[in-house]
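tool=predict chain=A
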Amino acid sequence: ILISQGYKVHLVNVGTIKPLSVERLNELLNKSKIAVTVEDNFISGGAGEYMLSKASRNNKHKLINFGFPDVFIPQGSQSELFEIFGLTEDKIVETIKKEMVYYEQQT
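tool=predict ok
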């Protein structure tokens, strides 16, 4: 979606978080203005939080983590829960675009 709207996007599929190549992580972050993680699990203790903890302090990036907040998750289908917690494709794209505008205004 973002590419079709003219945004330059790189997708990295992290098959496993451990072991994490910190060198490769920092290399990717240095090439990006904004980094995004999306996981269908809790943010707290998740892959995005782990990557942020390992990222070099020298990286001037914004990291956006999408996932479930650390709250009670009600019962529902996956699509219902994704809608409730803003994890649908449309909501993720909308949030990324807003963050990109904000980031550009700050730099």
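The helical segments are 22-30, 47-54, 78-84, 89-106. The radius of gyration is 15 Å.
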